[in-house]
Amino acid sequence: MDKFIVYNSKLKGDVTISGAKNAALPILSATLLTDKLCVLKNVPDLLDIRTMLKILQTLGKEISFKQGTVVIKSTGKREKYTAPYSLVRTMRASFCCLGPLLAKNRKAKVALPGGCVIGPRPVDLHIKGLMKLGADIKINKGYCIASAKKLKGAHIYLGGQFGSSVLATANVMMAAVLSKGITIIEHAACEPEIIALGIALKKMGANIEGEGTPIITINGVDCLNGLDETVIPDRIEAATFLAAALVTRSDITIKKVNFKHLTAVLEAMENMGAVFNIKEDSIGIKSPKVITPVSVTTLPYPGFPTDVQAQLMSCLCFAKGISMITEKIYPDRFMHIAELNRMGAGIQRSGPYAIIEGRRRLFGAEVMASDLRASAALVIAGLAAEDKTEILRVYHIDRGYEYIETKLRHLGAKVKRVKQK
């Protein structure tokens, strides 16, 4: 097991953003809908991507992954329909196999998912949507077992307790494209990753309208073709590097990014004092000497993303004054608070609210990474803290950031990966 050792650093230069994991994973699942050749480019080399490719191989696909390009072929053998717990338990997005497996094979057996420990994230919306399409679904011994003689279009409301669900929207979309008739999804997720999935499915021959809006209409087709697509930039990785620049009072440029996917993040950071130079596919940030406190609420897209909440909190630990973060997506996603407080931060939590009293300085300490985005937040804090910060269990960060320590070192950060004894 590895750990990161991080020292106080000043950043400069530019960094290139990788393809979006959260866009690549559903599109990889969508290749289960066809027997034709599928090629996906700009795929980040991440632990979660490697896991998804293993799942596809288990389900009968032949996979090649070289230099960011995944080539997926059908082996011609009898199609399989079981995604095992040994693989699915490591990441939640693997549950996206359920919809396409059901649509293509009329049966599917997918283990209930695992992933980061950030509070309850039930799969009830996935099951509700697929059952509306005509699936018979049972939960047995940790597996979701689905079958259907045929899938029929339906009017489906996918709103949940904390808003729309990206993965549930993706799962139902993929099942609906091969269903008979018209499916209307209300309260659909509007994230860029859903738009990317919709575009990919349409390139395969699906009939979809409204992706990126709360109402998606799908007219089912009999079969889909192959795919040649490029993954969109990772907006969360981009936000993470902007936060690293902000907290270290640095000026950097991030390349290969779509600024339209980051409007809420850019707004919050502008309110904190950052100045941006935005071009078609790059963002330059000029950081303030003094960070202004802000109040931020996480919301479904286009609101402030929950996946950037922890990174922003690290920045606000150094603000001059009191800030507040309200977590409305995953109210228990605050496990990084205890670790930041170990470094000298002044954070108090009350339910879904975190009150951050800014400090002039934090101090390096040995801290534990609890989940993917918390790992990034601790790296960010370590870059601005005095002395040495040791971040344990960084396998979490390898699930979502491609070569993050290499990219940070390219910017001048003092970061190294070592074996954890």
Distance between the termini: 8 Å
Separate helix tally: 13
- Cα Rg: 21 Å
User: Any idea of the CATH topology of the largest domain?
Assistant: UDP-n-acetylglucosamine1-carboxyvinyl-transferase, Chain
Provide a descriptive summary of the structure in words.
It is a single chain. This protein has 421 residues and is an alpha/beta fold. It folds into two domains: 2-17 and 233-419, UDP-n-acetylglucosamine1-carboxyvinyl-transferase, Chain (Alpha-beta prism); 21-230, UDP-n-acetylglucosamine1-carboxyvinyl-transferase, Chain. Helix content is 29%, strand content 26%. It has helices at residues 21-30, 47-58, 85-88, 98-105, 124-132, 166-176, 192-203, 235-247, 263-271, 309-316, 336-342, 372-384, 404-410, and strands spanning 2-7, 12-16, 38-41, 61-66, 69-74, 82-83, 107-111, 136-140, 143-147, 155-157, 182-186, 207-209, 215-219, 227-230, 251-255, 275-278, 282-286, 295-298, 322-327, 346-350, 353-357, 366-368, 388-392, 415-419. The strands form six sheets. The protein has a four-stranded mixed sheet with strand order 22-23-1-24. The longest helix is centred in the middle third of the chain and has 13 residues, at 235-247. The chain is globular, with a radius of gyration of 21 Å. It starts with a strand and ends with a strand.
Keywords:
421 residues, alpha/beta, UDP-n-acetylglucosamine1-carboxyvinyl-transferase, Chain, 2 domains, four-stranded mixed sheet, 26% strand
